[in-house]
Design brief:
Number of strands: 10
Radius of gyration: 28 Å
CATH architecture of the largest domain: Orthogonal Bundle
CATH superfamily of the largest domain: Intergrase catalytic core
Strand content: 5-15%
Number of helices: 14
Structural class: alpha+beta
Shape: elongated
Distance between the termini: 88 Å
Order of helices and strands: EEEEEHEEHHHHHHHEEEHHHHHH
Largest sheet: 5 strands, antiparallel
């Protein structure tokens, strides 16, 4: 038996299988670290099992992970006075440092560094979701007391593997998103010297299957247009402007009166994608000019174009409120399951049809036509198919 703080004791932790250090150890079955914990205030001992090594499928990686977990568990029990009954440190509770550094706990370091990353509100919200999902996996794997300076690539791989097990919505795309956001968080931690290198960097991305983007049909466009104009006029107005804008929703909701040059039929937005932020002018099409004119005439000098209820006002509406309205007014009320962002793809395809891919790329402020042709132009395959059909000449 091992003597622990506060009169507690525990049996010596053992690893199952017993030959886990051997080259003959099998990784086909789950491993675990097991021990009994005795608290004088509890009538029965608690059987503790730690299984954080099982996401590793090569013998070397699983042995290394088991060694790390065993040392971590012993340190928690003996030095930090961890009590598995209460899931807390009763005596010698570790004091988290105020400054981000190598000794800060893994989860706290991720949360602490989030506020130091310059990004849009939507990106920060996405990162927050990734941290929450990762934190659950960290706890499932018993990594929550690990210091950030100890985290390595194998721990990141284990976390993503655990997420794949517990998250029913996990996919290759979600894996890559988690990887990307964790990479950004650890990049900041490297710069703050909390960790020596970025452990996410060498974790592989997963191959995604690109789905065909479903967009509104001509009949659905008429149905949506009539329904919104009659029943949700201010949302209809936003959709008209957004559809021909070539801008992102996050850019549109921050538009202010001073950003619009109605006489010149243009408006400016701040592009926050990429390493350098930049202001760009975008064109106001003739077809939607009357709607712009109506909105501008309702604005005061310092107003945002889309505030509460999507009317002009002093504060911008949150970007997620646009998607929420689409889900209610279109998906729920009309039973049309096409996504709102399909409008951007539809507009890009129509611009390519009329003016070519360079004009469409310019409309969306892309630096080349690659993004337009590979992602946004949903009619490119059909257009190429029609061209190939007309190739003349027999063998």
């Amino acid at each position: 038996m091992m003597n622990l703080p506060n009169g507690c004791t525990c049996s010596k932790p053992i690893v199952i299988p017993r030959n886990w250090k051997s080259k003959k150890a099998s990784v086909k079955n789950p491993w675990l670290i097991s021990y009994r914990f005795y608290d004088p205030s509890e009538p029965k001992p608690k059987q503790v099992a730690v299984r954080g090594m099982n996401p590793f499928h090569t013998l070397k990686e699983r042995q290394e992970a088991t060694e790390d977990l065993l040392n971590l568990e012993l340190d928690m029990l003996v030095r930090q006075g961890y009590n598995p009954f209460r899931k807390e440190f009763i005596s010698q509770k570790p004091v988290e440092p105020d400054q981000i550094g190598p000794t800060m706990s893994f989860p706290k370091a991720l949360w602490s560094v989030l506020d130091k990353i310059p990004a849009t509100r939507q990106t920060i919200n996405d990162m927050r979701s990734v941290i929450r999902g990762s934190e659950k996996a960290i706890e499932d794997l018993s990594f929550q007391y690990m210091m950030i300076g100890q985290v390595s690539r194998k721990h990141i791989k284990a976390i993503l593997g655990q997420c794949a097990i517990t998250n029913k919505r996990w996919s290759a795309r979600r894996h890559n998103l988690y990887r990307a956001y964790l990479m950004r968080l650890f990049k900041e931690l490297v710069e703050l010297e909390a960790i020596d290198y970025n452990p996410v960097r060498d974790v592989s991305t997963m191959k995604e299957t690109r789905q065909i983007r479903e967009v509104l049909t001509a009949q659905e466009r008429i149905k949506v247009n009539e329904h919104l104009k009659v029943n949700h006029y201010y949302f209809w107005r936003f959709i008209q402007i957004f559809f021909r804008s070539g801008a992102r929703i996050t850019e549109m909701v921050h538009l202010r009166f001073c950003d619009v040059d109605l006489a010149g039929q243009r408006f400016k937005v701040l592009i926050k994608k990429g390493k350098v932020e930049r202001w760009v002018w975008k064109t106001i099409a003739d077809s939607v000019l009357p709607v712009w004119d109506e909105v501008i005439n309702e604005c005061k000098v310092d107003d945002h174009l889309f505030s509460e209820w999507l009317k002009p006002g002093p504060k911008s509406i949150r970007a997620d409120q646009i998607g929420k309205r689409w889900r209610l007014y279109v998906k729920r009320d009309l039973g049309i399951k096409k996504d709102l962002y399909g409008l951007k793809h539809l507009n890009a395809s129509e611009i390519v049809d009329r003016l070519g891919d360079e004009a469409a790329a310019a409309m969306m402020s892309h630096t080349s036509t690659a993004m337009t042709t590979q992602v946004y132009d949903i009619r490119s395959e059909r257009r190429r198919h029609e061209q190939l059909k007309k190739v003349e000449g027999l063998f």
